[in-house]
Task: inverse folding
């Protein structure tokens, strides 16, 4: 289902993010999580793409497995770093032939061994260039849907780590929307005031596409440290830090704090008419399921209002 239909039919979307497994054990963990979360009937699930295309085939295989063996709607990530125009064209053609309806277009991270990537080969210096190319592909008529791919881009409520100038940041974001993006999903955040300010600034910049909020429950002390590394610039509000500290290292206590905090974030976002909530699951189901239960819903459709 194309993004335009998703957002036309649902006032509030709910979605999950997975990453491709690299080992047998992690694959079993992922498929167990997918089975658990499938019952929540999410609007879609997104599949990440490794730095520099390092998980290209793994991503493709997982996307097709989800599409063919589950009721879920998979939305693969696609990045700029380390890719030529012909490589991106081949990927888009494969997804179009498989009936994939939507793509998340990102700038992408550099691999840890950045010396192996020749950036001079990159056909797309910025995410806006990739969005523009996908839009051109859509117009070629190769996709079975006349509208082509729905295109999602990333937003950063706490500021893009590569763009300290917050005014210019909005110019770059608007350029991606003008290039053809259909909706926007934010990086994770822990203070809803950052999201509301970001959403207001998007409105002032003339960005009218749906904006969905990225949420990742804290489930452990070490997990907070990993979040800070995965999402550079992530701000942990003092009340959250105090609550985690009160647990004094007790794993169950920290987990309860994280689930409660994420639940309250989601409740407040829903009260403020958020267009969607996107859960970064880390390939685990329990924290996301608990947030849903705490919100008092049986499945994601229980929080979804359809237009008449």
Result:
């Amino acid at each position: 289902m194309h993004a335009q239909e998703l957002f036309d039919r649902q006032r509030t979307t709910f979605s999950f993010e997975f990453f491709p497994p690299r080992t047998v054990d992690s694959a079993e963990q992922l498929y167990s999580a997918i089975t658990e979360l499938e019952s929540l009937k999410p609007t879609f699930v997104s599949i990440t793409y490794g730095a520099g295309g390092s998980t290209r085939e793994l991503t493709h295989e997982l996307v097709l497995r989800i599409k063919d063996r589950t009721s879920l709607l998979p939305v693969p990530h696609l990045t700029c770093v380390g890719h030529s125009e012909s490589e991106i064209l081949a990927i888009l053609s494969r997804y179009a032939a498989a009936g994939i309806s939507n793509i998340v277009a990102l700038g992408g991270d550099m691999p840890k061994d950045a010396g192996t990537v020749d950036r001079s080969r990159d056909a797309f210096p910025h995410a806006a260039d990739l969005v523009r190319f996908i839009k051109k592909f859509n117009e070629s008529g190769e996709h079975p849907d006349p509208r082509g791919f729905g295109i999602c881009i990333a937003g950063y409520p706490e500021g893009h780590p590569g763009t300290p100038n917050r005014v210019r940041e909005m110019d770059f974001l608007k350029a991606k929307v003008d290039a053809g993006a259909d909706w926007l999903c934010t990086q994770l955040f822990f203070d809803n005031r950052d999201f509301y300010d970001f959403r207001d600034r998007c409105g002032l910049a003339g960005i009218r596409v749906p904006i969905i909020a990225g949420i990742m429950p804290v489930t452990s002390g070490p997990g907070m440290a990993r979040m800070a590394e995965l999402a550079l610039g992530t701000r942990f509000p003092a009340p959250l830090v105090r609550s985690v500290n009160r647990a004094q290292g007790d794993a169950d206590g920290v987990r309860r704090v994280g689930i409660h905090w994420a639940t309250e974030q989601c409740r407040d976002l829903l009260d403020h008419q958020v267009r969607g909530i996107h859960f970064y699951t880390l390939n685990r189901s329990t924290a996301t399921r608990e947030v849903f239960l705490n919100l008092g819903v049986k499945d994601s459709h229980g929080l979804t209002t359809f237009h008449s």
Summary: DSSP finds eleven helices and eight strands in the chain. Confidence is low (pLDDT under 50) at residues 304-308. The chain has one domain: 3-299. The first strand starts at residue 13 and ends at 18.
